[in-house]
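Step 1: inspect the first sequence and its tokens.
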Amino acid sequence: MNPHYRKEIDGLRAIAVFSVVFFHAGFSFFKGGFIGVDVFFVISGYLITNIILKEIILKKFSIKKFYERRARRILPALFLVLFTTIPLAVIFLTRSELSSFFKSLVATSIFLSNIFFWKEAPYFNSGAELKPLLHTWSLSIEEQFYIFFPIALLLLWRLKKDFIIYFFIIIFVASLLLAEYSSKIFPNANFYFIFTRAWELAMGAIIAYYFVHRKKKDMFSKNAREILSFFGLTAIVFSIFFYSEQSRFPGFQALIPTMGSAFILIFADKNTLIGKFLSNKFLVGIGLISYSFYLWHQPLFAFAKSYIVNIDFLNKFFIIFLALILSFISWKFVEKNFRNKKIITSKKIFFWGFVSTFSFVIFGLSTNYYFDGKSRGGSEAELAKLLSKNIAVESTVMDERLFIKQRIIYENYKPETLVIGSSRIMQISNQISRNRILNLGVSGASIEDHITLLEMSLQKFNPETVIIGLDPWLFNKFNYQGRWKSLKKEYRKSLIKIDGKNQIKFNLSESSETTPSKWEFFLENIYKFINIKQLSLVPKELENNEKKLILRDGSLLYPKNTNNKLTAKIINYSMGKYEFSKENYKVYDKFLKNLLNHHKKKVVIFLTPFEPSSYELTIEEKPIFLEIEKMFIDLARKNSIKVIGSFNPSKNNCKNNEFFDNLHPTKSCTSKVLSELY
């Protein structure tokens, strides 16, 4: 046993990993369990820096050996989990979900999954929990940090060793300030980026520097260590139970759990009560397998949720137990063996690390091409065909823009009213309207979506009325809604059309079937043989559905157990930073005039209400919302367009219980707005 081994650190690892696992399991008491990752970052920064500094002092440090240790520690268990998740993904996921999975497989293999998930899945988005490799973002953060960190330490030691502590402090302060600023302006990027996470690793590095250079072993009294270590554990536990997705992370609020971790690392030794508690056999045992436990739990929960959706209490614990069993096996037979240099030599670990990484990248890229939504095997076309023949289909992970394009292609009835906008208007349906509705709303719709989807629709359909949902972010220069780019060719054509060159046509013919390659033929047969998700895309009933459904008219039906109990929060969706775009306004004004003058349509502007308590909080902090609504109304009046609804829910008498969340009203609230029209 390493004489410097500290059992209490493994105990702290156990607390951290359990908090993350219980959070991903969906236990409401662990709503702040995501802070376990922040705890891991501090521990990692401490342990790695401690090793590097001691080896540098003893003149034993080697960059090659450092990366070898990281490879032995990280790669074997990670690659085992990646290899195992591939067949499970083919069994449980739809084609579009598989496309996303194989992209994440590539990103994870080269430690860029934090960048991938930043672009694809906000961490607290409901769809993110269905991503089998979502949790690997934190591994990418660590490995990105450790690419340059040891080199910088070695250079500083040789040039000016006394500056090392200032180097740590500079990283800590600069990164923390950036994180706090970004938590308000760019919350999604802030959560995933190395630059806003580096301070947590630097905090651990500062602690390591303190231990390596302290002159007196016991600088604090026994009572002081007892109190401060107890305070540290209390801070972590408090964060787990009282933080939530509304907490701004990793800004100043993250100081509570990270400082708690720091206090435990500094003060909780084997002689303190907290140290003894964290050193008990159970917690130490979990701490030893915590890396494997962290790797296994997310894929198991993601696959279970993609198929079962609502996992009951007992099944959650069964999945956790299964993850623990798999974790022990991979720790015992994979992690330990690959750390043993007598069993696996340095040449072997580098060789197999390179071969495995290369294999995952090539396999992921080639397989993703087949399952991608733009290829012949995409599920967008399949879902559009199913919806044209059935009352509803399951709302799966997919490219919504491509799905709407396919809906336009395969739709076979003549709507009297077209609905265009974001997910906030996707409760407009035939159930609450006397007209035949075709709802073509997409999540986070931007002006590019509005223009493109409507111009494409009007090439095929001839509705009397067009209802357009306007959202606060529509003319925001910093809304960062880039999902429209999957239809960028169609958007360019749409701009030409609204400039008066209406002879341009969209290609709305059914996708032609091409002869599949041998690889595609193999994939298709494997997929059709073992995939079970394809059998459940069409629901058997609507009343007791447990999944989000897209109805025949394009509106959304939420699951029966959707929780309507809301906590008021500032509405920041695509509004973290606001700057009015004159260019977007001019383009949109021209678009509206084209609808009225060329297409000769009756246009109605729909302002969707926000949840009451959140709306009140928002206009207190961001009165710009009031100005934006007035601007929309003025734009409509300028073009003699009728406006219904308001961002202010009280104007339509929409109550707190008439919202699924802070952004999305239920059908009852939406019908109150539509009553102004009918």
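Step 2: inspect the second sequence and its tokens, then contrast the two.
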Amino acid sequence: MTKKTFALFLVVLLLAVTGLFAGGNQAAGSANDGAVRITATYAHFGGIPTDTIVGKAWHALMEQKTGQKLDIVWNYIPYAEYAEKINVILATNDLTDLTFIMSRSIAAPYEGQGVFVNLAEHWAKLPAYNAFLKQVPYGMEKVANSDGTIYGLFGGETPRLSQGVAINATPAIRYDVFQRLGIKVPGTVDEVLDAARKLKAAYPGKYPVHFGHGWWALSILNTYKTSQGIYWDGSRYVFGPLSDNYRAALTLLNRLYTEGLLDPESFTDNDDTRTRKALNGDAQMLLGIWFNTIDDWNTNTEANVNWALIPAVSDPAYGTPWQSVQNENEYVVAHNGEATYIKAGARNLDTLLKIGDASYDPETIRLISWGIEGQTYTVKADGTPTFMDNIRNSPKGSFWIAGDDWGMRASSKYRPGLQGPIDARNFLDCAPPQNAVINGQFVQTPYETAFPDEPWPTSPWISPNLFAPPIAFTPDENNANSSIMTAVNTYVTEETMKFITGERNFNQWNAFTAQIRNLNIQTVLDMYNRKAAPYK
């Protein structure tokens, strides 16, 4: 190498290192080809949407709606790890331009701290979001803080039912085992105990009763018309663990546990372990599970099991139980507060706002919900979409699996785009039947449509909390609430387990509730009820 060539080499190397040479380090927010660079952190549910047909179509649609070429760098984290990792990301302020947060309670302590963009300051640039919220009862009140700030682009759904009620989480039993042993399908808590004892006698080395993942004792709490947290009882906000109803629920769980009927690993099993137990006979009764979980179990030809869903059971002393009814009859924002947040100070804010707003555009909602017109769905005479036969009658045995091939929301693994609102009718358009026992009869029907005669919104199955007054706090109020509730929830979780396992005797219940009050729960409840007063 000559001295001249070597000198040129050093110059090139220096320029490349310092980012001044063409093709070197790029400015944040821009790409080599002039595309707008955006970073995004989202949960994935088993499949990465970006390389799917619908994922690519979504990207093209966003370029069309923004009028810009986009270079979106996605950071996908598995759903099971997401809440923990997002807490770390928030604590270190290591946010991407767009960040998906699974619960409003996680985001609340950071609102008003200069972490997120206040969308209210840019409301004129979010017309589709505004139009969607106008169709949601108390829509603006549900997304805004009491000081008028709005930080999240919340998910949601369009109505999927025109009549009846939809139950999404419910108990399930091994119907084939119940039939073979001549055990009555339980409709009351006494029948749950009787069935569990008979199952234990037939399989003495097993624990017949289990919980479904994420639904800790949900159906039992519905039986006793209470909750693990703060909820609206029809006239005011209350805290479930302070009530005698909560004590009654724990008493039943304690009976199941101390008699060796409740699997002690129920509270810690992951999805894989629970599935294994459901398939190999280690569990025969689940006290609450997401309704379509049993589909994969029942189609497992090697296991040859027959799981069936049943409604939450009753305790005659407490009347008609609540069921896990979801509001599938109206426009809604995400039940648990899932939302996308824009990082404060992010470059290309206008582009980010356009992409966020486009999530609420009917064209985007239809794309992520139904896929590609003429390839996955057609439009009926009344203007509504319906899946085509390649999805409806998929040779793969499930339209959820067929949806995986396209990467649309009607799938088992994919949530394309910003995981915003969806047209929820897609789930019912060709929903497979679930095994269920309703009113003593074994039926096969999509469980969400299995109760068309339950009146909406007056069915006694519906918890008053479904129609709770909208509560909006300021960021400071959210921080104050979070500080108190972190201590309260930690204490309640620990002591609840002690009551169930017998480590703590129920004669100490008053001391338990007194300690909850000592942790200032009433301060939070008073704040909730002051906010609710205008809606009574």
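Step 3: confirm your contrast with the notes below.
The chain has 20 helices and 18 strands. Residues 475-501 form the longest helix (27 residues).
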